[in-house]
Specification:
This protein has 222 residues and is mainly α. The protein contains 11 helices and no strands. It folds into 2 domains: 1-57, Homeodomain-like (Arc Repressor Mutant, subunit A, Orthogonal Bundle); 70-215. α2 (13-35) crosses α7 (116-131). The longest helix has 31 residues, at 59-89.
Amino acid sequence: MATGVTTSNRRDPEGSRRKILDAAELVFARAGFDGATLMEVGREAGMSGTLPSYFFGDKEGLYDAVIARLFADRDDALGTVCSEALELAAGGGTQAARAGLKRLVHGYLEFVERRPAFVRVMARDAMDHERRERITARRHSTAFHQGVVRIIAAFGPEPGPATDADQLVISLIALCLFPLEHDSTLLAGMGYVARSPGFSERRVDHVVDLLARALTPPQRGR
């Protein structure tokens, strides 16, 4: 057994595990998988550097647990968002469909702004896998994907040209994540702060307007 496991850690293993995962999110977001160490995670958590290996075995086990928790938290958040979006869209008509779309966009941005480590860990994860191997397992939210499919349908039996649900999911996520990923570069140079309330509100309205225009059925006779 690894050394440094205190009595308090034994009394509250779930609390210790949660602290380690919280610390690991920050460390992996900051340094990536290759640059992170279990000792650094332990220090970040205010614990012995040996505790992460006691709970998770090795760095890969800890990293997998961090990714799994991020995805679980995302799925919980987006499941609620999708339910609310579909309730709004159920009113019928383009305006109701647009309201549902806005809830989807706002909800996605709301989650990634609340969990900045999600954006950073995923960005670093993508770069790491470019050097290793491609991930083919599903990583997007099934609830969110199905929400997009049903929002498309809410725009009517003959919606506009952007009816490929897979492409719309990719576009929506890209439009939401890009400003957050480039907050300190492109946005800073333009004088914006991605996580400021004013910018977030404008971003939601802009993304919704772009997507709604592409999904709104063309008027006949034009």
